[in-house]
Amino acid sequence: NKQxxxxxxxxxxxxxxxxxxxxxxxxREIFLRxxxxxxxxxxxxxxxxxxxxxxxxxxxxxxxxxxEVNEQDKTLTISDTGTGMTRDELVDxxxxxxxxxxxxxxxxxxxAEQKDLNLIGQFGVGFYSAFMVAKRVRVLTRSFxxxxxxxxxxSDGVGSYTIDQATGLTRGTKIILELKDxxxxxxxxxxxxxxxxxxxxxxxxxxxxxGEKINTVQAIWVRNKNExxxxxxxxxxxxxxxAYDEPYYRLHFSADAPLAINALLFVPQENLERYxxxxxxxxxxxxxxxxxxxxxxxGLLPEWLRFVKGVVDSEDIPINISRExxxxxxxxxxxxxxxxxxxxxxxxxxxxxxxxxxxEFWKKFGIFLKEGAASDFIYSQDIAPLLRFExxxxxxxxxxxxxxxxxxxxxxxxxxYYINGPTREVIEAGPYLEAFKLRDMEVLYTHEPVDDFVLxxxxxxxxxxxxxxxxxxxxxxxxxxxxxDSGDAGKLEGLELKNLxxxxxxxxxxxxxxxxESKRLVDSPAVLINMDExxxxxxxxxxxxxxx
Length: 548
Ligand code: ADP
Ligand code: MG
What we know:
Its main location: cytoplasm. The chain is α+β, with helices and mostly antiparallel strands. About 35% of the residues lie in helices and about 20% in strands. The chain has 17 helices and 19 strands. The chain has helices at about 10-20, 30-50, 85-95, 100-110, 190-200, 230-240, 325, 330-355, 355-375, 380-385, 400-410, 425-430, 435-440, 450-460, 480-485, 495-510, 535-545, and strands at about 5-10, 65-70, 75-80, 135-140, 150-155, 160-165, 170-180, 205-210, 210-215, 250-255, 260-265, 285-290, 290-295, 310-315, 390, 415-420, 445, 460, 465-470. α1 (about 10-20) packs parallel to α4 (about 100-110) and α9 packs across α14. The two termini are about 50 Å apart. The protein binds adenosine-5'-diphosphate and magnesium ion. Adenosine-5'-diphosphate (ADP) binds near residues 38, 39, 80, 84 and 173.
């Protein structure tokens, strides 16, 4: 298909562009970060191609990004020698939105009074930010695939775009922005230099402006910890996580055995899954001797650590490993083991040195650790000491760990007890706590259904069974009253008791499987007991909801 085509943007793209073009932004300069990051992605992909011995067009072109400005014409051009795009790829990549999270982003953006486009890159729509500053965007591109022709994509961002054939192009992509009248500043070399320093300093390819390299190309993770400043770490974090704030936690470590590893891992400030942005993609990139093998490396960390951002560099990974073999290679399995172990140990240390800070982390990211504890049999016992719960002995809103629970536990208590309820008030008003209050025993409060899956899956902690207080057998120690066997006045015995139980069973029919005399109640007349040993009541409710 060699002719010129005019094509409509997908509806979601139109919607997004409408917002991008017609709103006012204070931080428009982030468009440059997005375009440079796309150029860097395309260069990484190309570099990977050449390493894996695939033939490419123009094999001798240096891998770099070039920026040109023209202050008279008010144009800004960003070129790269990366993968380029074919005609079909242009349509797919610059005419539609593929990623699932982008819809949520779009909706939030449409509703927000103060539009913040800073997150645009995280939702797979960074390219369109060009229209914040450009009245027209031209993309000249030629794919690295031998035999592919060059193409030109042009749009003013309103409704449609055109694609045409373009001759005389070398491999890669050139994006020409015809700047809006009020965006002339972005044709000034000083402005561009400042923005690149700010957002794109760590792009691992030279960024060249007027014949000069303006970024610091360096792999911070292989440098000595003592020589790196907090600012450098933060700047690097912003670059790799596409973030605009500081990391919450940072772990930089190297190991020689069992594998040679340099790793720099970060925990962000926010868990975006909490805001309905869909499932977070893996955030750690895999390198071998400073060459990126995979940007969002699957399998490098277990799924439940997908909120972790960073880089891992290991000399032991063969550089020409293919993505397919990488996912299930034994080597990656060993890497995962080292990284996961080290990261969990790090969290344990953080919880000790600054429990309040860890508590804040737990509020936002605890759900991921719970996911691991409930589903990952390899790590559930390692995650257990990191779990936090409210309890009958914690202040409202404060947490206890299983270890704290064990420390406080009286000697005659056999198990660790917990009970599920939506809030502290609901649990404390219910009948399940009575027997424990009477004995001054601590009960963990689980507020979310997943908690019960976690504790049931763990089954025990440091040789103590985890028992839900709605189970029939609680193994509670005798109270003073039990020992004295003083006998309650008016207590039903023998036939009287039997008749009452039979009457109640008959009245309730199939709603209950059995009516029993209870020894656990203090003030309440009756309590529902869960006869299913495998599942707590809250788990049963979840399963029922799933079956509907
Ligand atoms: P994301 O980068 O998160 O995928 P973008 O909106 O920034 O989202 O870019 C969309 C897609 O367009 C990219 O995934 C890529 O396939 C393609 N693309 C953008 N810029 C370039 C470029 N300079 N070279 C090659 N492909 C590009
Ligand atoms: Mg992008």
